[in-house]
Amino acid sequence: MQCPPLVVKHASKKLLACYGFTFYPCCHLISYGFSGHHCLCSWPTSARPSHRGCTRSCCPPSRLTGTVTTSSTSKAIAYASVVVLTEAGTPVTGSVCGEDGQLVLPGLAPGRYTLRVSFLGYQDLVRSAIVVPAEGGTVALGTLPLLPATQQLSEVVVTARKPLIEEKVDRTVYNADQDQTTRGGDATDVLKRVPQLSVDLDGNVSVRGSSNIKVLINNKPSTITANSIADGLRQIPADQIKAVEVITSPSAKYDAEGSGGIINIITKTNTLRGGQLSLDGSGAPARVR
């Protein structure tokens, strides 16, 4: 066992010299490095001198020095955290490295210590069994390389929900598939929730107060809304609608019809094409167009 330095107030200097203690007259600091019945730690508690450090110039200073670098490029790591622990794991002192990766930890009492260096993105470096001698001096630890803390991931999945309403340059998009409140209804229930659209009790739709509108299904005219927009919207289940686009300033590619605005209903599956069925009473086969 190696004992820490002690301050002797009332002990005999000659007695200490006989037992091999080193004595510093400025502050009565003694140091020793052997165990047995002569060690002051074996003295009764009432007879032990009090523990106290010495900061006077005549006492030999003790400090730890080193350089923290990367293990791959040997480049200095600035501002790495350094902590000194006792062998029991109790923190004694700590600091951070400079910009050049240099660390200096002064004022350590003689003993055995453990050094831990840590920095973000690197594995902690633990250097144990560091001995600070009783005669003091600088303990050079040399280069302290840190290994990168790499972790391989099996996969990365990024998920995001589409917003309910999107504002684009020429249109407003209402993502109906993100709204669960219209389930079980028809297209009229969906259009009631679209900004800039108004639907009256009869199912008539207007864009910002104008009824001069054109309804497209998947960017194409459909015979479903050819005769009556209100009746056609009632035939489209709300569960089949993916999004509704409201185009208030139609470009030149659209017809002049619908100067008040264009409503484009985008379905999940393109099955709403419409058709005509005609029956001939003369007995000829039915024709479907």
Describe this structure in words.
This protein is mainly β and 289 residues long. Helix content is 6%, strand content 33%. It has three helices and 19 strands. The chain has helices at 13-18, 187-191, 229-234; strands at 6-7, 22-24, 29-31, 62-70, 81-86, 91-96, 102-106, 111-118, 125-132, 137-146, 165-167, 172-174, 197-199, 205-207, 213-217, 241-247, 261-267, 277-278, 287-288. Strands 11-12-16-17-15 form a five-stranded mixed sheet. Strands 6-5-8-9 form a four-stranded antiparallel sheet, with no helix packed on it. A hairpin with a 6-residue loop joins strand 8 and strand 9 (125-132). The model is unreliable at 1-58 (pLDDT under 50).
Topology:
Layout: E1 6-7, H1 13-18, E2 22-24, E3 29-31, E4 62-70, E5 81-86, E6 91-96, E7 102-106, E8 111-118, E9 125-132, E10 137-146, E11 165-167, E12 172-174, H2 187-191, E13 197-199, E14 205-207, E15 213-217, H3 229-234, E16 241-247, E17 261-267, E18 277-278, E19 287-288
Number of strands: 19
Low-pLDDT segments: 1-58
Radius of gyration: 43 Å
CA(first)-CA(last) distance: 103 Å
Query: Mean pLDDT score, rounded?
Result: 75
Tell me the strand order in the biggest sheet: 11-12-16-17-15
Compressed to H and E, one letter per element, the order equals EHEEEEEEEEEEEHEEEHEEEE
How large is the count of helical segments?
A: 3
Quaternary structure classification: single chain
Helical coverage, percent range: under 10%
Strand content: 25-35%
- Structural class, by secondary structure, is mainly beta
Mind describing the biggest β-sheet?
5 strands, mixed
